[in-house]
Amino acid sequence: MPGWMIRIEVSPQDVMASRFAISPLIETLHALWALSGAREAGVLLPWAERRREPYQRLLREVDGTAALVALFRRGKYNVDFIAPPPAGLNVAIEDELRVVRATPLAQAREEIARNLEGRQAPAPEIMATLRRPDVVPLFAGVLEAAWRELVAPEWPRFHAILERDVIQRAGRLAAYGWGAALDDLSPQVRWRTDGRYGHIEVRMESEGADERHRLGGRGLLFVPTVFGPPGVGAYLEDAWPYALLYPARGTAAEHAPSKGLARLIGRTRAAILLEMPATTTQLAALHGMSLGGTGDHVAALRGAGLVTGTRVGRSVVYHRTPLGDALVNGG
After folding, report:
1. I need a labelling partner for 122 at 20 to 30 A (CA). Which of 214, 231, 270, 322 fits?
2. Which residues does the chain have with pLDDT short of 50?
3. Which helix (H) or strand (E) holds 45?
4. Residue 252 lies in a domain
5. Around Cβ 100, how many Cβ atoms within 10 Å?
6. What is the pLDDT of residues 192-235, one digit of tens each?
7. Domain boundary among 111, 138, 153
8. 288: left (phi > 0), else alpha (psi -120 to 50), else beta?
9. CB 21 within 8 A of CB 88
10. Cα separation of 3 and 264, whole Å?
11. Is the whole model's pTM more than 0.85, yes or no?
12. Rounded distance, CA 64 to CA 220, Å?
């Protein structure tokens, strides 16, 4: 199999230290990747079609957009300062952009130079922009405009997808360990164990030499993404905590319930049942419904014994019961 292998050694302490994060800024950056043509939109093609004209408007009207997009490289180094590691699940993009704007100019120039190594020099006007003394605030402004025009209009639905993935995967990690958390994360990722200790194997498809790393009790940062590449990205340099960026479950927009299941309990309730586990707020965002209407559907499913709720902090997360699972799997 082509590519190279990253092996990350973990210990029992790393389960407790591992955490999940959601980054509006990283989603915005990857949205630009998709719309620029540097990466195919894939299952997000309907979204890309809706945002094509706003993206073209950014290129025409927001200074620095073309220069930022020109830095995108598949399978190679991309500048770090425009995508700082996310701090938590509900971080605001304004806070992330504040971190970007605090980047020293010398660091930005060093990362841009590294990004340009081994490739054909961009057009003169692009190079002139990359050499500007205000390149850091310039790029922060591009990302702020891209967030506002490309991602924010549909963020409630995308955020619900990301949150739902975190709830499920974090629960698996805490209850069952690494193997359960990494199951179905990506065909690139495998969990290997020799008993007490184990390691995560990540198969990379770009060029590179095999690497070994050790978490050493620091844990791993899991960052689900809607707009990111279909594979897994590994962050194993000093600029980031050790992290895996991976496609969130449910990114392929709407699950289509089977005709039999839809006839039995109704199309809307069938679709909600397929989205479990999730909170009522997440389900409302995913389906574009009111909280009250969503709550009525969830109550009906709960009354039928198909879902049950578990309080997590201030929210109630609804899961399918064994009966609900049987109905979905056999519907």
Report:
1. 231
2. 1, 253-255, 331
3. helix 45-61
4. no
5. 20
6. 987 667 899 988 876 668 889 988 888 999 999 999 887 888 88
7. 153
8. left
9. yes
10. 47
11. no
12. 34
